[in-house]
Specification:
Blueprint (H helix, E strand, L loop, with lengths): L1 H8 L4 H13 L7 H14 L4 H14 L5 H13 L5 H17 L4 H13 L4 H16 L3 H13 L6 H10 L6 H12 L6 H5 L4 H12 L1 H12 L3 H13 L6 H12 L7 H16 L5
Length: about 290
């Protein structure tokens, strides 16, 4: 029933939706939650112009990491991230599979993590580099090693701030409890001169994978801060999917979904009168043009 309903309310075929359902179940989605998750997955896939299997992988990844979010919220946030950036659904799958758990571990909300990912992708950094670079940057910002702490201490002294390495360690670790942990850490690196007068000195103590990510976040700091709120609000996935379906509802190509449902219904019981069959056909086609399925 869930597969039929989603077939009638999205552009995807029953076969595609069945494969997505299999992916979601294998990822641990409970049977009673499947209809809602499947609908959210299909809406995101349609909105992002993605295949539904990629969307299913992505939705299940975010559900596992940010389990407090409902499925429509996840779909909308992912759609917003695609809408405001150069990201694709495939990019997001690559990036989130590697870094989402690390981000959540440092108390970044889903919006804050997606904002950072969007900012880096807009800066022209390819998806695989965003995945490894952002993850490494978070690890090094919130847990600086001894070499980094020494470089920080020297820089603080140059700025007239005499603090110990242990105090510096505590300061950077404490950023994970800020309202926006990553923005707080990046802002402090910016204040220390990363991306400015101390760029060469400070970048030597960071892993090369982290340097480009940190530099891009500093260079696009205003975008980083603004992107989080842009990802938070709205029903982007539902709106984009509904627009597509209003177009598809007027197209013969989507008639197949209604006929598939109709065929399944008439084959499931005794042969009925012509009038009854005609009535079922009418109702099936009506579903195609009345797609506001909740």
């Amino acid at each position: 029933a869930a597969i039929k309903a989603v077939a009638l309310s999205t552009k995807f075929s029953g076969t595609e939706i069945a494969l997505a359902a299999k992916t979601l179940v294998q990822a641990g989605v409970e049977t009673d939650a499947l209809p809602k998750v499947l609908q959210a997955t299909a809406r995101f896939a349609a909105a992002a112009d993605s295949d539904i299997s990629t969307a299913a992988d992505l939705i299940s990844t975010v559900r596992d990491v940010y389990s407090e979010l409902d499925d429509n919220t996840i779909a909308n946030q992912l759609t917003r991230a695609v809408n405001i950036s150069k990201l694709t659904a495939e990019d997001l799958r690559t990036i989130l599979s590697l870094g989402a758990q690390t981000a959540q571990g440092f108390n970044l909300t889903s919006e804050q993590y997606l904002a950072a990912v969007s900012t880096l992708r807009n800066a022209g950094i390819k998806a695989s580099t965003v995945a490894t670079g952002l993850r490494q940057a978070m690890l090094e910002i919130f847990n600086p090693d001894e070499k980094t702490l020494k470089a920080f201490k020297d820089r603080y002294e140059q700025m007239g701030e005499n603090i110990s390495q242990e105090e510096i360690r505590s300061r950077f670790y404490s950023f994970k409890y800020a309202d926006n942990p990553l923005a707080a850490g990046v802002a402090e690196l910016k204040r220390l001169g990363f991306g400015g007068e101390s760029q060469k000195t400070l970048q030597r103590v960071f892993d090369v994978r982290a340097v480009n990510a940190i530099q891009a976040l500093i260079s696009n700091f205003n975008e980083l801060e603004a992107a989080s709120s842009r990802i938070t609000f709205g029903e982007a996935a539902a709106e984009a999917s509904d627009v597509q379906m209003r177009s598809l509802a007027n197209s013969v190509t989507n008639l197949g979904a209604a006929l598939t449902v109709f065929s399944a219904e008439i084959m499931s019981g005794p042969v009925e009168s012509l009038e009854a069959l005609a009535d079922k056909a009418t109702k099936a086609i009506q579903k195609l043009t009345d797609l506001d399925i909740k």
